[in-house]
Amino acid sequence: MKAPLEGLRVVELASFVAAPSAGALLADLGAEVTKIEVPQGEIYRHSLPRLAGIKSDFSEAPHFQMDNRGKRSIALDVTHPAAQKAVARLVDGADVFLTNMLPHRLAKYGLGPEALRARRPELIVGVLTGYGRKGPDVKRASFDYAAYWARTGFMDIMHEPDSPPAWLRPGVGDHAAALSLVTGILAALRMRDQTGEGQVVDVSLLHIGFYVLGNDAAMALATRETPPTHDRRRARNPLWNHYRTKDGRWLFLVMIESDRYWKGFCAAIERADLAGEERFADARFRYRNAPELIALLDEVFGARTLAEWETQLGGHDVIWAPVRTLGEAIHDPQARANGVFQTIDHPTAGPFETIRPPLTMSAYEMKGDRPAPALGAHGEEVLREAGLTQAEIDEALGK
Predict the structure, then answer these.
(1) For residue 368, with 0-12 CB atoms within 10 Å meaning exposed, 13-18 middle and 19 or more buried, which class applies?
(2) Any residues with CB less than 8 A from the CB of 386 and at least 6 apart, and which?
């Protein structure tokens, strides 16, 4: 099968997660992606599991592998003029330049979107920033923890009233931003097919945070008020709430249309008597009497283990899910049946599983089964392809 982006060349000058994971998705679609790293390799490459508190001797950074699979690697110090010239030559032969370097640094090294497109109008430049390319914080460095999570109100709204603000797990906002960046690049390629002109695709973690939080953010924009946080003891809809089981685990009920499911739910938990109770007769009454119903359901769900509830609820038409640990979730038979995970055969670490690209295509199999490249493994090769002489290659690589 011919890959959708076969023959497309991407030069990636980026580190950590958001922009590199966009590059990995473009590689999954068949593009030839060349990753430019600092000579010592970026920190993300060296973030081994044991440094995250995981008892493992796995010799690679699994998250780096996922976000850089299928690429070629060249190690350059872009603060040096010879390396800057080498990058420019690489971009001369590329269709897409992908970066998350801060705008003022790009300009300093002659790699700003405007300069590159003046040199090559058909070039598409994908830029990932924390806060955008305009405004007072244009020079501010960021991670998704800050721009996507804390600053957008996401962090504050994702906790119970008596709890401290919720913590973000690594890469959550970054991977959402990557999907947006790839979407923009694909649209820009389509427009270039029609006009011959490239353009700049600009994605910020700040904007992505507001977009992902869109339901609440839209409400806040229209009303100028912050939506209330969820309080499981006083949930507006007790059938859209989480409950602790006998063994200290949790399950999550997600019956947003509670009237539709109420009688069936009562049967599922073997409390048909609740269906006839006037104080719980419909969604309005359950809202008014939510603390009483939640206290009742706490007792009901606290009487059995999570495994027992999985058996009990499994045969009923109710919407719910067990709250899995990640260690359990990676064995989920439904995820396995749908090919969510992929084995990579790494040349030094051996075979290991990772997450496949987040979509499937009926006419092209996106496996995502190639490992990330060793640091600088393709340096001379890619520079020679770009037309540099051996002397220029040696100078650019600092030999």
Answers:
(1) buried
(2) 86, 89, 90, 92, 93
Q: Report d(CA 79, CA 82) in Å as an integer.
A: 9
Enter the pTM of the model.
Answer: 0.96
How much is the mean pLDDT over the chain? 97
Q: Which two tokens stand for residue 125?
A: 């430049």
Burial of 319 (0-12, 13-18, 19+ CB in 10 A): middle
Q: What is the dihedral of CA 130, 131, 134, 137, to 10 degrees?
A: -110
Query: Residues 264, 257: contact at Cβ < 8 Å?
Result: no
Contact 58, 49 (CB under 8 A): yes
> For position 1, what pLDDT does the model report?
74
CA-CA-CA-CA dihedral for 171, 340, 356, 177, to nearest 10: -30
User: In three state form, how does the secondary structure of 65-113 look?
Assistant: HHHHCCCEEEECCCCCHHHHHHHHHHHHCCCEEEECCCHHHHHHCCCCH
Q: Is 167 exposed, middle or buried (0-12, 13-18, 19+ CB in 10 A)?
A: exposed
Q: What is the pLDDT of residues 114-127, one digit of tens each?
A: 999 999 999 999 99
CB of 153 closer than 8 Å to CB of 146: no
pLDDT tens digit sequence for 212-246? 999 999 999 999 999 999 999 999 999 999 999 99
Q: Which of 176, 245, 239 is nearest to 211 (CA)?
A: 176
CA dihedral in degrees (241, 147, 371, 385; nearest 10)? 150
CA distances from 14 to 62, 72, 120, 229, 321 (A): 18, 13, 20, 36, 38
DSSP, res 148: I
CA distance 56 to 329: 19
Q: Give the pLDDT of residue 342.
A: 97
Q: How confident is the model at residue 258 (pLDDT cuts 50, 70, 90)?
A: very high
The whole-angstrom distance between residue 57's C-alpha and the CA centroid of its chain comes to 26
Give the pLDDT score at 198. Answer: 98
Q: How many CB atoms lie within 10 A of CB 36?
A: 25
Residues 104 and 69: beta-carbon distance below 8 Å = no
171 backbone dihedrals φ, ψ, rounded to 5°: 80, 0
